[in-house]
Write a structure and sequence with these properties.
Strand content: 5-15%
Largest sheet: 15 strands, parallel
Shape: elongated
Order of helices and strands: HHEHEEEEEEEEEEEEEHE
Number of helices: 4
């Protein structure tokens, strides 16, 4: 019995660790890797062997100059501290590939950040940035740039230099216009500008033909330009919480779409071309002015979730039974009679119908 108890200990530890947040699990894995340290005290014992340094949630007000002795650092995590800026010496860590400084109080970055020539990922979300130094535009190996939840209102024209960028997050800032310099970063495949004050999608959006994820949720859009339909690789499109009144028939051109989020607009009609989106799994149309759905929506045989709450629907298409993969349909807040509700339930026996 004693042996069995000892055998239980590692099993219990495993299950406890599985309940931790994803971020903590990643840190745990890194902690077992060679060259990883989670304190200055440990790192300074062998400064040239330190490759990854995690100082997140250390209540740091400023960076210790000792950090700049770790010349071989490739990963530096400074998340969840109280930093108001970064030391100019940050540019000396020229082997850095990942720098993450989220949830601090940073209002300004040193231009020397541009010396980090090997940097591939820069995460500065949830700070107080109002502008970026020109040095950021010298990071020509940068692939991922996260700047959400700051106070940015524009990007430098020199952002055009960052041709290796693949993912840019600018949500929850103060942009009133679509940043022009992004038009010409042709390798972008993920772009998020949600929760800004953008009123128009420029026609130059059509240049970004490799986009797979695009979010302009919670802005002030009232139309979609024709050039937008050039983005034929899009898989995830979120335009919810805007002022859109119609979905153009060209929506049918985006045949790689997996998720389409258009809730909280003023849409009154769904074009029949929606039925061409055969890869669509998630269709979210809550809180619009929709009175009926086209029969062609029944061609979406891969659809798993369909949200239609808070519209003006009184019935669903006759062939709704064709949506055999549908697992949930939201219909609350529509004036649908009881007889129609019963018909829907019988037509979709494997689907949870939510009223």
């Amino acid at each position: 019995m004693l042996i069995n108890r000892f055998l239980l200990i590692p099993i219990l530890i495993f299950f406890i660790s599985c309940n931790k947040k994803d971020n903590n699990i990643k840190i745990l894995k890194e902690n077992n890797s060679e060259g990883y340290c989670s304190s200055i005290e440990d790192a300074i014992k062998s400064p040239f062997k330190v490759l990854k340094l995690n100082l997140s949630n250390h209540s740091l007000i400023k960076l210790s100059p000792l950090i700049f002795q770790f010349k071989n650092l490739t990963f530096l995590n400074l998340d969840d501290n109280k930093l108001t800026g970064l030391n100019r010496a940050i540019g000396k860590l020229n082997k850095l590939e990942i720098l993450t400084v989220t949830s601090n109080l940073i209002g300004k970055l040193p231009d020397e950040i541009g010396n980090l020539k090997n940097l591939k990922k820069l995460n500065l979300e949830n700070n107080q940035l109002t502008m970026l130094p020109n040095g950021v535009t010298r990071l020509q190996n940068l692939q991922v740039l996260k700047l959400g939840s700051n106070k940015l209102s524009k990007l430098s024209d020199n952002f055009i230099n960052l041709q290796n960028l693949k993912s840019v997050s600018l949500g929850n800032n103060r942009f009133q216009e679509f940043p022009k310099s992004l038009y010409f970063i042709s390798n972008l495949n993920r772009l998020s500008l949600n929760s800004n004050q953008i009123k128009e999608i420029p026609k130059e959006i059509g240049n970004l033909i490799h986009l797979q994820l695009f979010s302009l949720s919670s802005n002030q859009l009232d139309k979609i330009p024709t050039e937008f339909w050039n983005l034929k690789q899009l898989r995830d499109l979120s335009l919810d919480n805007n002022k859109l009144k119609k979905i153009p028939s060209d929506i049918g051109l985006l045949q790689e779409l997996f998720l389409l989020e258009l809730s909280k607009n003023n849409i009154s009609e769904i074009p029949k071309e929606i039925g061409m989106l055969r890869n669509l799994s998630y269709l979210i149309l809550d809180s619009n002015q929709i009175k009926e759905l086209p029969e062609e929506i029944c061609n979406l045989t891969n659809l798993e979730k369909l949200y239609l709450s808070n519209n003006k629907l009184t019935r669903l298409p006759e062939k709704i039974y064709k949506l055999k993969e549908l697992r949930i349909i939201g219909l609350g807040g529509n004036p649908i009679p009881k007889e129609e509700i019963e018909r829907i339930k019988k037509a979709l026996p494997n689907c949870r119908v939510v009223f």
